[in-house]
């Protein structure tokens, strides 16, 4: 049995009635069986876990003052440069959120808006989805609508999207969605997944529930036939093989779907001179010397991600791969990222690189050009391995990935 209204086993029905009894002190008239079953399904009808989840949710709503969320004014930069928008319905009449996520400027967004406000903007959207969109579509359809499809377009996604503060913020949004809006997702369909997608997926996968992972469909560039099984061309923009455009003929339908783009510097807030990097290592790089930070990469196509800042002065930075098992000078190693001077005393530096081969990689902080000043350095370095799922679709002539839903 699906665990939905009209499709409950005897055990599930008994569990629902007990759930109502346990929560009678906090339930309101609008908390009907459809609502309560969402929380039960999210915890596989485990009464204790479902009760804890829902009570935590009620406490969170009170703490975040969500009764006034509709009146909150979202910062302009988020309205203009965050990607995505509700657009059309799927073949069953459920709403579709289309998100060209590959075009978002995560660094620019977090330098221009508070992380809390970015997450709050998503909460405001989800509240409107449940209080207005689902109800309107339910009336039109004549039966309950309570879930949506999210279509993620990862075209233009690159290594810059591994920007750690941005990834951390996105993972917080996933956790918020899983904890407070369970069973809202019908399917997540990812299209134009790039070759380094297994690395990105491995970062976010720990934040996905098992149910969400099973609802995820990951595709490459040959996505149209599969996509049409869920969303008809009549409900898609022309840029995705559909038949809809903006009134002015724009094929991306940007009047309804935020297209992201680089955030102008005019939105940036004043930067601190030294980065506040969580768990950073703090060292001094002596005058006329360099510091080599070693990274052991065991799996090819992993990525090395770094953040660092210096106090008062710039520093040189480069990435190398050892060609022997012993410590080497930079001139003897394979150059991966050429050494260059970085103004990390003005703006915290971050970046990443894909390691096409396993081995020992060296991040070299170069202060050999300075004979008078040592440099105080704060750095964080991580090795990100690709997911072990076999994403390659052997039936496709182009790069394609897939996870079949159950």
Order of helices and strands: HHHHEEHHEHEHHEHEEEEEEEEE
What is the overall shape? elongated
Cα distance spanning the termini: 14 Å
What is the CATH superfamily label of the domain at 77-267?
A: CRAL-TRIO lipid binding domain
Structural class label: alpha+beta
Q: Per CATH, which architecture of the domain at 77-267?
A: 3-Layer(aba) Sandwich
Total strand segments = 14
Query: Describe the biggest sheet?
Result: 6 strands, mixed
Arrangement of strands in the largest sheet: 5-4-3-2-1-6
CATH fold label of the domain at 77-267: Phosphatidylinositol Transfer Protein Sec14p
Q: What is the count of helical runs?
A: 10
Helix content: 25-40%
Low-confidence stretches: 271-275, 392-406
CATH class of the domain at 77-267: Alpha Beta
Indicate the proportion of strand residues. Answer: 15-25%
Rg: 24 Å
Query: How confident overall, as mean pLDDT?
Result: 90
InterPro entries: CRAL-TRIO_dom, CRAL-TRIO_dom_sf, CRAL/TRIO_N_dom, CRAL/TRIO_N_dom_sf, GOLD_dom, GOLD_dom_sf, SEC14/CRAL-TRIO_domain
Domain GOLD: 270-383
Pfam family, one: CRAL_TRIO_N
Organism: Magallana gigas
Molecular structure report:
The structure is a single chain. It is built from 10 helices and 14 strands. It is an alpha+beta fold and 406 residues long. Among the domains are: 55 residues, N-terminal domain of phosphatidylinositol transfer protein sec14p (Helicase, Ruva Protein, domain 3, Orthogonal Bundle), CATH 1.10.8; 191 residues, CRAL-TRIO lipid binding domain (Phosphatidylinositol Transfer Protein Sec14p, 3-Layer(aba) Sandwich). Strands 5-4-3-2-1-6 form a 6-stranded mixed β-sheet. The protein has a 4-stranded antiparallel β-sheet with strand order 7-14-9-12. It has a 4-stranded antiparallel β-sheet with strand order 8-13-10-11, with no helix packed on it. Helix 7 links the parallel strand 3 and strand 4. It is elongated. The C terminus is likely disordered. This is SEC14-like protein 2. It holds the Pfam family CRAL_TRIO.
